[in-house]
Design a protein that fits this description.
The structure holds 2 protein chains of 2 kinds. Chain A has 2 domains: 29-58 and 302-413, Alpha-Beta Complex (Aspartate Aminotransferase, domain 1); 66-299, Type I PLP-dependent aspartate aminotransferase-like (Major domain) (Aspartate Aminotransferase, domain 2, 3-Layer(aba) Sandwich). By secondary structure, chain A is of the alpha/beta class. Chain A is built from 16 helices and 14 strands. In chain A, 49% of the residues are buried. Chain A has helices at 5-20, 66-79, 87-90, 94-107, 118-129, 144-151, 165-174, 198-207, 230-233, 263-272, 274-277, 284-299, 302-321, 340-352, 382-398, 406-413; strands at residues 29-30, 37-41, 49-53, 111-115, 135-139, 156-160, 181-186, 211-215, 242-246, 257-261, 332-338, 355-356, 358-360, 370-375. In chain A, the strands form 3 sheets. A 7-stranded mixed beta sheet of chain A has the order 4-10-9-8-7-5-6, sandwiched between helices. A 4-stranded mixed beta sheet of chain A has the order 1-2-3-12. Helices cover 43% and strands 16% of the residues of chain A. Chain B is mainly α. Chain B has a domain at 1-16 and 26-57. In chain B, 46% of the residues lie in helices and 0% in strands. Chain B contains 3 helices and no strands. Chain B has helices at 4-16, 40-51, 68-79. In chain B, helix 1 packs across helix 3. The longest helix of chain B is centred in the first third of the chain and has 13 residues, at 4-16. The chains are: A alpha/beta, B mainly alpha. The interface between A and B is small, with 11 and 8 residues.
Chain lengths: 415, 80
């Protein structure tokens, strides 16, 4: 009612500012199921274009897997569309508890609680288990959802330099007097694709009597030989106190997340976590789909093995073509361009060549570290990757960045 | 006797600066994006331990911690 011209003008001014700063996010409409090959309408109103998708979190290629789709259909038929209730009133079905038990077994923890998303899991978990007498010590590059969750918690908060174990140890010493200390990290960092040094972190947590928390959203289902996550890769299964993860990436890609870990901490979430208490949980068809995903991944490591091979092929191809990459061994392979405008230009040209990949720049990544973040999938076949490599090479030649060092690219295009 | 400005400046550089950013006594630390307000607690605890003082939370504001000079002014107040 009181939405005056002045108010409208104020918001339009803010939005124009975002556009002028190059920070305005624009959606691209996909007219097909999520997969390696997709049909895209971009810009809005233009005719559809067939492109290879190398920017989805569809690591295991399960987003449109026929068995998962079938299971979701069956879940829809047998358990209905929605719950119309939060969990603790009348919003819990047998399949919700079944999925929690399956996740517990898959991650080798003590118990699990579902959340509408991992964003919600991270928003709720810290406040549910910590108080003002405690301290949260987080890696400086943790995901935004963890930062939001930390902000909602009354415990003291401190940070350590990214993956700097000496710095973490100094913080554990500094905060020795707190009732509880919780060390918080991503398992795989989403922008750089590197993994946390979980073996060293677990040892430090043991030494200083601290809890260990990891968000394994970019790892669950494919990191580690059995795909159980970064804690498997680093040989600390059963030693992580809290794992949060999502079903919106490798584990089917639909939606939902969870907190999995020590049973008392999970129970604290069930009693106190506000996103759990005050919103509906995951809808039945999605629950049925995730159950099928876990059945597939528990039966065979075929998909994570294929993803590993695809990632090696992709990383080797880009390196041989002469691109500067962030070091790593996860399916997140950042192609470094350093300059924000260059990242946007390369992304646009790749799209023209039939490859859908997005440029990231400040403030999403640090100033001067603009990049194209590529994400490989078990849904990719070698011919997809070869075609994408051809496109990258063609565009890389156009901008004369192949075989150039970081310094040379910065000299040509600036930071 | 140690120069307080130098001690605090050195701590800030070691703790928060991860590139070659120059920090002077007037450099805006929090509003300038060098010190994340999230990470201020270690600076507060460092000051309290180093100078044997206790800074109430309502005085440990981003404004009061926004430069080496401002931090020194705050610390001097509590040293008395």
């Amino acid at each position: 009612m009181a939405y005056s011209d002045k108010t409208r003008g104020m918001y339009n001014g803010i939005l124009s500012g975002l556009q002028e700063a190059g920070l305005f996010k624009q959606e691209r409409f996909i007219h097909s199921p999520q997969a390696a090959d997709i049909e895209v309408e971009f810009p809005s109103g233009s005719s559809l274009k067939n492109v290879i998708n190398i920017c989805a979190n569809n690591y295991l290629g399960l987003s449109s897997h026929p068995d998962v789709v079938k299971a979701a259909h069956e879940g829809l038929d047998s358990r209905g569309y929605g719950m119309s209730s939060v969990r603790f009133i009348c919003g819990t079905q047998d399949i919700h508890r079944k999925l929690e038990q399956m996740v517990t077994e898959f991650l080798d923890t003590e118990d699990t609680i579902l959340f509408p998303s991992c964003m919600d899991a991270n928003a709720g978990v810290f406040e549910a288990v910590l108080t003002k007498d405690d301290v949260m010590i987080s890696d400086r590059l943790v995901h935004a959802s963890i930062i939001d969750g930390i902000r909602l918690c009354s415990a003291m908060h401190d940070t350590f330099k990214h993956s700097d174990m000496d710095h973490l140890e100094s913080k554990l010493q500094l905060h020795h007097d707190r009732r509880l200390k919780m060390v918080i990290t991503d398992g795989v960092f989403s922008m750089d694709g590197d993994t946390a040094k979980l073996d060293e972190m677990a040892a430090l947590c043991e030494k200083y009597d601290a809890l260990l928390f990891i968000d394994d959203s970019h790892a669950s289902g494919f990191i580690g030989k059995k795909g159980r996550g970064t804690h498997e890769k680093y040989g600390i299964m059963g030693k992580v106190d809290v794992i949060t993860t999502t079903f919106g990436k490798g584990l089917g890609g639909a939606s939902g997340g969870c907190v999995s870990g020590r049973k008392e901490l999970v129970e604290m979430c069930r009693q106190k976590a506000r996103p759990y208490l005050f919103s509906n949980t995951i809808a039945p068809p999605v629950v049925a789909g995730v159950i099928k995903v876990l059945e597939i991944l528990s039966a065979t490591t075929e998909r994570r093995d294929k993803l590993e091979k695809n990632t090696e092929f992709w990383r080797k191809g880009l390196t041989e073509a002469g691109f500067v990459l962030k070091e790593g061994d996860t399916p997140i392979v950042p192609v470094m361009l350093f300059n924000a405008k260059l990242s946007q230009d390369v992304s646009r040209d790749l799209y023209q060549e039939g490859v859908y990949a997005i440029g990231f720049f400040f403030p999403v990544v640090p100033q001067g570290q603009a990049r194209i973040r590529t994400q490989i999938s078990a849904g990719h076949e070698i011919h997809h990757l070869e075609k994408a490599l051809d496109a990258f090479t063609k565009v890389g030649k156009k901008y004369n960045i192949l075989g150039k060092t970081k310094q040379e690219i910065i000299e040509m295009y600036g930071m | 006797m140690e120069d307080m400005h130098e001690v605090i400046r050195e701590y800030v550089i070691n703790e928060y600066v991860e590139d070659d950013t120059e920090v002077t006594n007037d450099t805006p630390l929090i509003s300038g994006g060098i010190v994340d307000s999230f990470s201020m607690v270690s600076l507060k605890r460092f000051l309290e331990n180093k100078y044997s003082i206790s800074i109430p939370d309502d005085r440990a504001t981003p404004e009061a911690f926004d430069s080496v000079n401002k931090i020194c002014t705050l610390v001097q107040e509590f040293i008395g």
